[in-house]
Every structure is written in C-alpha cells, then in structure tokens.
Write a structure and sequence with these properties.
By secondary structure, this protein is mainly alpha-helical. The chain contains 18 helices and no strands. Helix 2 packs parallel to helix 7. The longest helix is centred in the middle third of the chain and has 69 residues. The protein is globular and about 70 Å long.
C-alpha cells in the first residue's frame, strides 16, 4: 500500500511543488515587500485558526473512517454537524476581533480573506481525508491538484488585479469552493440515516483535539518568529524572512507530505491487519526512504541558496532570503522527520495527548529564543532560534514516542546517506560561483550525481531496490 500511495500521490506533489515555487517567484515580484509581509502574517493567522477549529475534525475522519465501517452514517452526521456549528461561529467572532485589532487596514483585509478561505478549504480537506482513508488515491489527487493549481492561478490573477496581500488567500478559497461543488454532495449523502452522537463526538475529540493542539504548538513554533519580527522590525522584514523560509521549507515539506500521504494510511493498515511485526517492517521502509531522499535535498538547498534565491525571489527580498535559506533547510529536515515519522508513534497508539508535550517543548523554546535573539540579531536571530528549536523538538518527540510505540530508526541508512551527502558537500563547494541559472544547474546537477553515485555504491537504505521498485511501478502505471 505504501508504494502504491507513493506513486499515486506523486502528481499531487508535483503540482504542489510547482504552485509553491511559483508563488515565491511571482508573489515576491508582484507584491511589494510590505504586502508580501502582510500575506505572510495573514497566512500565519489563517493556519493557527484553521488548526484550532477544524484540524481535529479532519484527523478524526482520517482515523475513524476505517474503524467505523458499520456506523459511517453516524460518523459523517456527527463530524459534519459539528463542523457546521464552528463554521457559522467563526465569521461572527473574527469580525468582532478584527474591528478592534490595532493593525493596518490591508492586513485586516488579508486576515479576513484567510479566515474566509479556511472554512471552504477545511470542508474540502474533510472530503479528501475520507478518500485517502478509503484508499481512493485518484479521488484525493484530483481535488488536491484542482485546489492547489487553481488556487495558485486565481491568486496570481488577483495579485495582478491589485488585491495585495489578500490575493493568494482569496485564490485558495475560490478554488476550494469550486471543488466543493462536485466533492461535497457525495460526502453529505453518506450521512443519510445517521444521527449526531455525543458519545462518538467525545471519542473523536479525545483523539483529534490533542493532534490539533500539537499542531498548534507546531504552528506556534513555525510562526512565532514572524510575529516577533513584526513587533521589533517591519512587515517588509517579515516578508524577506518568509520568502527565504518558504524557499527551503516548501521544498522539503512537499517531499515529506508526499511520503506522509502514503505512509500514514500504510502504517495504520499494516498495524490493523498484521500487528506490530507488519508495522515495524512498513515503518522501517518508510523511514529509510525518507532519509534517503530528504537528507540530500536539505543539504542541496543549503549549498545552492544564493543562486536559487537569485532565480526564485524578487530583487527587494533576494539577499535576505538567501541568508535565511540554509538554516531553514536544516530546520525543515528536522521538522519533516519529526512530523511525518516520529509523530506516527503517537497517532498509531492513539496516545495523542503526548503530542502536545512533544510540541510544547520546542514551541516554548522558540518563543524564548526569538525574544532573546531577534531584538539583538534581527533576521539572523530568527533563523538561529528556529533551527535550534526544531532540533530540540525532534529529540523530544523521539524520547516521548518510544514510550508510546517504539518505531524503528534507520541508523544504517542515516550513516550511509550522511556519507553520500558529505561527499556531495566536498565536491559542490569546490565548484565556481557563476551566479543564477548556470550556477544552480551546475551545482544541483553535480551534487545529485555525486550523492546518487555514492548512495548506490553503498546501497544506502537499499537504494538499488528502491530505484528498481519505483521504475517498475512507473512502467506499469504508464503502461496502464
């Protein structure tokens, strides 16, 4: 199931990568540094509110769809009616807060746009999670591609139309609403004959709310630096930091999300059908493959930060983005391994309350470090604090996760991939700095070739068998 998901979700992540990089290239050029900073802050608010209100419902749909096979009408009725109550309350509460919030008018509009899109995006996400839990890879992929690609295109059009920092968020909302025209009727039909069940709701909340709170801690870890920067610096500084942050984080997050889409359901299915032995086998395969491709990606981003920023980021934000990128590449590696692998121990064992502790530790550390470092070092302090906090979070999740469900750690693959990555660093740092596309192409191509050669020579994490497996799967997919 893992490899079927890896291949099936590949187009989704290609589109996400194109849209993610395209957003950096286009929005950092169309929007002014201040408008881009407003977008970064509004997106952070959107993410925080969406996580608090709706993420636990999405998590419950993903986890309990298979478990509630005989009572799915009640599952759907309980979750969708709960969603409706919160969706109706959000604009009322948000409107009151925005009226008195002491920020600029354009930032208020951007925040309102993000909160409006949160409702439709989460409603679509529920439909997607149901499809993913059911193994309907194609159905999930179609809506995700439409929402991501369509949202990007609409957002670009709105940015050109003068919507400022609101444009990317409005574009995502419009695309999600359009997808719901087709996705929602089939979902709502599944609650026909079902009833709201308070007992079930408490069970869903007991599972999902700790996940949402842990993600809230994760978002606090990822966004605190922006708010502290805005308090001590300017919105333009936030925009520069967000550009560099997105350049690194988006690259690795797309990669980890791709593997997580396939790995999460595969681990659940392995445990439900084959017990702990089957789970360990599936988890080891998933973790080894993550390390094998994510480690060189993070190192490669750090090595090519300057030419990548020259190409991807607008002139006003370029220099600062290049300075931020290497540090955030390391942070994103720590974050991805933590979120998409180490945290699986808590969700599989249903001991999700421990997730809150696992994420509260680095979130608190990040708040403290940003308040100490940003006033003194500015942008540099933000990126130092972020990297240190994610490293602490990975260690905390590993230690706490062992007591919930011991997942295998691919130490041999880490050592082999680390050796191959070190060889890549030695070679790439000796190449000339030619600037722009030429330098990026040269360093990326040579780095990938060196890493691939050494990894295959060492058979890092079974690299040869992984390659053969993927090639065979792609051949079958194209043949069909």
């Amino acid at each position: 199931m893992f490899w079927r998901g890896v291949l099936g979700y590949l187009p989704v992540n290609i589109i996400q990568a194109i849209a993610g990089f395209g957003a950096i290239v286009i929005f950092t050029r169309i929007l002014s540094p201040t408008d881009y900073g407003a977008y970064a802050l509004a997106y952070s608010v959107y993410a925080l509110v969406n996580t608090v209100l709706f993420t636990w419902i999405e998590a419950a749909m993903a986890r309990f769809y298979a478990v509630e096979a005989e009572h799915r009408a009640n599952l759907f009725a309980t979750l969708y009616r709960t969603f409706a109550v919160m969706a109706l309350a959000l604009p009322v509460v948000a409107g009151i807060i925005l009226v008195v919030l002491p920020v600029s008018g354009p930032l208020k509009i951007a925040i309102a746009s993000g909160l409006g899109s949160a409702v439709v995006r989460s409603l679509l996400k529920m439909a997607q999670e149901r499809r993913r839990a059911a193994g309907e890879v194609r159905g999930f992929a179609v809506y995700d591609i439409a929402q991501t690609g369509g949202g990007f295109l609409v957002g670009v059009a709105m940015a050109y139309g003068g919507f400022g920092g609101s444009a990317p968020l409005l574009g995502a909302g419009v695309a999600s609403a359009s997808c719901l025209i087709w996705a929602l009727p089939s979902e709502l039909s599944q609650m026909r004959g079902g009833r709201f069940d308070g007992v079930r709701l408490r069970a869903y909340m007991a599972y999902g709310v700790p996940i949402a709170l842990s993600l809230l801690m994760s978002l606090a870890l990822a966004t605190t630096d922006r708010f502290v920067l805005a308090g001590y610096m300017t919105e333009a500084t936030v925009g520069a930091y967000h550009a560099g942050y997105s350049l690194s984080n988006r690259t690795l997050d797309v990669m980890f999300a791709w593997l997580g889409m396939a790995g999460g359901p595969a681990c659940i299915m392995a445990m439900e059908r084959g017990g702990h032995e089957a789970l360990v086998k599936t988890a080891r395969e998933q973790a080894g493959f993550m390390v094998l491709i994510a480690l060189p990606a993070a190192v490669g981003l750090a090595l090519t930060a300057t030419p990548l920023a020259d190409i991807m980021v607008g002139p006003a934000l370029r220099a600062s983005a290049a300075r931020v990128t290497p540090w955030i590449a390391v942070s994103a590696l720590f974050s991805g391994l933590t979120t998409y692998y180490l945290h699986t121990a808590f969700t599989l064992s249903r001991k999700t309350r421990r997730l809150i502790i696992a994420m509260a530790i680095p979130a608190a550390a990040n708040l403290a470090l940003t308040l100490i470092l940003i006033p003194r070092f500015g942008l540099d302090g933000a990126m130092w604090a972020t990297t240190a906090s994610y490293a602490l979070g990975m260690v905390a999740s590993y230690v706490l996760g062992r007591s919930a469900l011991a997942l295998p750690v691919p130490w041999a693959t880490l050592a082999q991939s680390g050796t191959a990555a070190a060889a890549m660093v030695v070679v790439v740092t000796r190449l000339p700095s030619l600037g722009g596309v030429v330098e990026l192409t040269l360093k990326a191509g040579v780095g990938a070739a060196v890493y691939g050669f050494v990894a295959l020579a060492l058979n890092a994490g079974g690299a040869r068998s992984y390659g053969a497996h993927l090639l065979q799967g792609l051949k079958l997919k194209f043949a069909s």
